[in-house]
Amino acid sequence: MELAKMEALIVDDHPGMRTAMRLTLSNLGVTHSQFAQSANEAIRRIKGQHYDIIVCDYNLGPEQDGQQLLELLRHNNLIDLSMIFIMVTAERAYEKVVSAAELGPDDYLIKPFTAEVFRVRLERVLQKKSAMAPLFPVLQAGDAAKASELCNVLAASHPAYMIDFLRIKAELLMGMGQAEAAQQVFEGIVSERAVPWAKLGLARTLRLQQKDVEAESILEGVISESPEYLAAFDTLASVKDKLGKAGEAQEVLSKAVAISPNTLARQRMMGDVAMRNGDITAAEAAYTTIVEKGRTSFFRDPNDYVNLSRALLECGKNEDAINRLREGRQSFSNAPEAVFAASVMESQAYSQMGKAAAAKEALGRAMALKDSVPMTDELKLDLATACYRSGDEAMGARLMDQVVRNRHEDARLLQRVRKIYTDLGRELEGEQLVQSSTQAVVNLNNQGVLLAKQGNLAGAVELLTEAAAQLPNNQQIVLNAAHAVLTLVNREGWNQDLMLKAKRYLEEVRGSNATHPKLVQLQTLFNDVQNKYGSRV
Amino acid sequence: MSGQDEALLPAMLAASLHEVKNMLGELTLSLDALQQQCPQQAAQIEEMRFVTRQVSDRMVQVLLLYKNDAGVLRPNIEAIPPADLLEEMLMEARSLAGDRLVVSLEGEQAPPYAYFDRYLCEMALMNAIHNALRFAHSRIVIGVGRLGNALCFSVEDDGPGYVPAVLQRAIEPGGHSRDGGTGLGLYFADRVARLHCNNAGECGRVQLDNAGVLGGARFQLILP
Q1: For the ranges A52-61, A83-92, A462-471, B127-136, which has the lowest average pLDDT?
Q2: What pLDDT score does B174 carry?
Q3: Alpha carbon distance A441, A40 (integer Å)
Q4: How confident is the model at residue B24 (pLDDT cuts 50, 70, 90)?
Q5: Chain A residue at shortest CA distance from B92
Q6: Number of domains within chain B
Q7: Among candidate residues B27, B46, B69, the one where a domain is terminated
Q8: Residue A92 · residue B76 · CB < 8 Å
Q9: Which of A44, A45, A73, A403 is the most exposed, having the fewest neighbouring CB atoms within 10 Å of its CB?
C-alpha cells in the first residue's frame, strides 16, 4: 500500500508530541493523519473509520495507558492483523510491560528517537505486513481453514517470519477446534526455543483437550520463569478453577492483580472466583475496582454494578448496595437494561432490610421490563429470588425452572440454585425443582437420540433444533442438535441452511465454553462433512 | 545505614539516572537544532552528539545491570531476523562515523530468524560499535553469522586491537577496557549474552580477540 494513501491516527496526550509525530509521518509520505488525546477518543475514532497506522504513546495520562488501549482494541476486534500499531514511549519500563503482555504492538520505539530510526522501523513493519498481505482477505472472509494452509505457504516463502506465521496458524487451528494440530505447532516452536507465549499456547491447546493437569504444570513453569507474564496467570487461574482448586485460582489471580490492577476482565474473574470461594471482602474489592475504573472505560457493563451489589448484599451492606445500584442506573443514563438490573437487586436489598413494600415496588418495575431486555441466567436467578421474597412463588419457580433447564449440566450454577433455596428456607423444594427440571432436559435429549436411533434423523433434527432455540445456553442440547444436523447432512446430502445452523451451534458453545469435551469431535465431523461434499459455509 | 536507606538508595539512583537521561535527551535535541544553525561547526557538534549518546547509553546500562543484579532483568526473547537488527546498527554506525570511516556489513551466513532480545542485544552491540569508532583507522565491519549452532554478531575494526591484558582477563566490572575505561560496556554485553540461554541450558558469551579479517579488535556476541 502506498504511504500517501494511508490513514494514520496519532494517539498522544501531549500536543507538542502529536504535532512532531504528524510532521515525522508526513515527511515519510504519510500525509493523512488525525489526532486522539486519550484512549477513549482513540476508540471512538477507530470505531468511526478505518486507519492503516496507529502511532500511540504508552503514557496517556492517569486513566488508561497505550498497552491497555491496544489490548482493548484487539479483544474487541476493533483492529485486525492488517493494521499497523506502533507504540512510542519515553520509558524503558515499557519493555517490561511488553514482555509481560500477551498482545504486543507491531513495534515499539523508545524516545528520543530520530526520524530516520522511525522510518526504518516503519519500513520493517510494512515489509512484514506485505509478506502477510495474502492472508488478510482470507481472514476477512472468515475462511480459517484456507488461511491456515496459506500460513504454511507463506512461512516457506518468507523464512524470516516463519515463527509469526506458525503462531497465526496455531491460533487459527485452535479457533477451528483442531486442538491437537495446534498443539503440534506450538510444540514445534517450544522445541526450538521455549518462549513463554508458545508454552502458554501449548497449555491452551491441552486445556481444549481436557488435559488440565498437564496444562497446569506447564503454566506453573511459565509463571515461575516469567513472573510478569500476566496472560499465563489468567489461564492458570481458570485451569485451577476448573480443576476445583478455587482457592489456588484466587491466589494466582491476586498475584496478577497486584502486578496490573487496571485490567477489568481480570478483576471480573477475580470477583467471580472470590465470590464462589465465599471471600466476600476480596470480591467486593475487585468489583469496586471494576466499577471505579470502568467509569471512564468504553467497555463497561451494567452487570458490574449488579455484581458489586451482590457482594455488598452478601455481607449485609444493604445501604451501600442501594447507593451503588442508583449510581449504576444513572451512569448508564437509565437505559432499560440498567434499570431492570438495578430494580432486581434493589428489590432484594429492600427485602433484606425488611422494607416489603419498597421491595415489591422495585420488583414490579423489574417485571414490567423483564421481556424487553436481555437477561443473563445469573440475573434471572436474582429475579426469581426477588419473586420468592415478595411472595410470587409461582413466578419464582418458573424462572428457576427456565434457568436450570438452560444450564442443567452447570454444576456451579445448580449449586447456587440449591443455596438460594436453602437461604429461602425451601431446601426440599429446591432439590425437587433441580431434579425435575434436569430430568425434563434429559428426557428431551433421550427422545431426540431415540428418534435418531430409529432412523428418523429428520425427526431428531426437528426436535433438537427446536429445543436448542428454547434453551440456547444448554450446551448439551445445542451440541446434540449440531450432532443430529451433521449426521443428517452427512447421510442425506449437502444442505446449506442446516450446515449454517450447525456452524452457529458450534460457535455458540465455543464462545461460552471453548473446552467442552464434545466440541473437538463435532468440529471434526463438521470439517469431514464439508470436505466430503467439497462445500463450505 | 539503616535498612530503609539501603532500599532507598537504589530507588533514588534509578530515579536520578532516569532524570539525567531525560536531560540528555533534551541536550541531543538542542544539538540537532544547533547543527542546522551552524553548519560550519558540524564536526564538533557531531562529536558532542556522539559523546552525549554514549553517556545516555551508559546510564541505561547501569540501570539494566542494577536490575540484573537484583534478579529482575528478564530478556524479552522473540524470533527476529538478525539481518534487521544489523541493518539498523549499520545505519546508526554510519551516521556516527560520518566521512571519517567506512562501515560495512557482513551478513550472508545469517539465519533467516533467531531468538534474542532485540533491545538488549542492540545495547550490547552499540557499545562495541562506539568502541570501534574510536579505535578504527579507516574501517569497521559489522557482521552476523553462524558459529556452530549459535548465532554470532561481530564488530571488527582495523585499529590496534585489544592489548594482551584485556584479552587475558575475565570480563568483570572495574576490569578496565582498552582505553582505560571502567569496562562497564563489556561487562554489560557479557551479562546480556548470559541472559540468552537455549532449551539445553547453554547460555551466550562475549568473545574478544584480534583474529578478525581487518587485523584490529574483534568483538563477538555469541548466542546459542
Answers
A1: A83-92
A2: 56
A3: 45
A4: confident
A5: A117
A6: 2
A7: B69
A8: no
A9: A44
Q: Which of A17, A87, A92 to probe the B interface (max B CBs under 10 A)?
A: A92
Where do the CATH 1.25.40.10 domains begin and end in chain A? 261-391, 442-533
Query: Which of B56, B84, B122 should one mutate to test binding to chain A, selecting the residue with the greatest count of A CBs within 10 A?
Result: B84
Query: B205 and B142 in one domain?
Result: yes
Domain that holds residue B143: 78-223
Which residues in B lie closer than 8 A to residue A120 (C-beta atoms)?
Answer: 87-88, 91
Q: Does domain A261-391 have CATH number 3.30.230.10?
A: no
If you count residue pairs, one on A and one on B, with CB atoms under 8 Å apart, how many are there?
A: 52
Q: What is the pLDDT of residues A490-534, one digit of tens each?
A: 999 999 999 999 999 998 898 888 778 788 789 889 988 998 998
Instruction: Tell me if B115 and A192 make a contact (CB, 8 A cut-off).
Output: yes
- B55 Cβ under 8 Å from any chain A Cβ: no
The ipTM assigned to this model is 0.80
Q: Which of B22, B26, B46, B113 to mutate to test the interface with A (most CBs of A within 10 A)?
A: B113
Task: Indicate if B112 and B172 belong to the same structural domain.
Answer: yes
Q: What span, in angstroms and rounded, lies between the C-alpha atoms of A425 and B56?
A: 71
Which of B63, B74, B112 has the CB atom closest to A160's CB atom?
Answer: B112
List all residues 6 or more positions away from A108 whose beta carbon is below 8 Å from its beta carbon: A58, A86, A87, A88, A89, A94, A98
Q: Which residue of A has its CA nearest to B28?
A: A112
Q: Min CA distance, B3 vs chain A (Å)?
A: 24
d(CA A471, CA A466): 9
Q: What is the pLDDT of residue A293?
A: 82
Task: Based on the fold, state whether residues B107 and B14 are members of the same structural domain.
Answer: no
Q: Tell me whether B149 touches chain A (CB under 8 Å).
A: no
Q: Take residue B13 and report the three cell numbers written for it.
A: 539512583
Of A243-247, A294-298, A313-317, A481-485, minimum mean pLDDT range = A294-298
Buried b (16+ CB within 10 A) or exposed e, B162-183: beeebeeeebeeebebbeeeeb
- The answer to whether residues B131 and B160 belong to one domain is yes
* Domain endpoint, select from B69, B88, B118: B69
C-alpha cell at B70: 537484583
Q: What is the pLDDT of residues A90-148, one digit of tens each?
A: 766 677 677 667 778 998 888 777 777 888 889 999 999 999 999 999 988 878 889 99
pLDDT digits (tens, 9 = 90+) for B179-214: 555 678 888 999 999 999 999 999 999 999 999 889
Give the cell for residue B105. Answer: 556489513
**Calpha distance A13→A38 (Å, rounded):** 6
A429 in contact with B, Cβ within 8 Å: no
Residue in chain A closest to B29 (alpha carbons) equals A112
Assign residue B190 the CATH number of its domain.
Answer: 3.30.565.10
Pick the CATH number of A3-131 from 3.40.50.2300, 3.40.640.10, 3.40.50.150, 1.10.10.10: 3.40.50.2300
pLDDT of residue B1: 40
Name the band, by pLDDT with cuts 50, 70 and 90, for residue A472: confident
Contact call for A160 and B113, based on CB within 8 A = yes
Domain check: are B173 and B206 in the same one?
Answer: yes
Is the CB of residue A43 less than 8 Å from the CB of residue A69? yes
Cα gap A377→A363, rounded to integer Å: 17
Mean pLDDT of chain A: 90
Could you report the per-residue pLDDT of A399-445, keeping only the tens digit for each?
999 999 999 988 889 999 999 999 999 999 999 999 999 999 999 99
Residue B80 phi/psi, 5° resolution?
-135, 140
Sign of torsion over alpha carbons B195, B196, B202, B205: negative
B100 and B157, same structural domain?
yes
Instruction: Tell me which chain B residues have a C-beta less than 8 angstroms from the C-beta of A195.
Output: 77-79, 115
Cβ-based neighbours of A157, under 8 Å, separated by 6 or more: none
Asked whether the predicted pLDDT for residue B2 surpasses 50, the reply is no
State whether residue B11 sits within 8 Å of chain A by CB. no
Q: Do B76 and A116 touch (CB under 8 A)?
A: no
Residue type at B82 in one-letter notation: P
